[in-house]
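Thread amino acids onto this structure.
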């Protein structure tokens, strides 16, 4: 499994992550990306888990997030 770290408070609502990896993020009623499943938090990061087969989409979200608040580890 991959670790997904998302600093939601700094999201600017571009919706890229929710488009490229809709199984992991949705846009919420505030217009910000929200992880579907949050397993833990670390400081201001929310932490989820990703399947290996979704690595490419998750890495794309990490790479293209315009404010660099997505980290994919593992
Ligand atoms: S790609 Fe980054 S800025 Fe855009 S919605 Fe996702 S977390 Fe927010």
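Threaded sequence (74 positions):
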């Amino acid at each position: 499994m991959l670790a997904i770290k998302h600093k939601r408070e700094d999201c600017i609502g571009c919706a890229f992550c929710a488009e490229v990896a809709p199984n992991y993020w949705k846009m919420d009623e505030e217009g910000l990306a929200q992880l579907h499943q949050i397993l833990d938090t670390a400081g201001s990061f929310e932490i989820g888990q990703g399947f290996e087969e979704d690595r490419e989409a998750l890495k794309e979200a990490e790479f293209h997030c315009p404010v660099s608040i997505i980290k994919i580890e593992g």
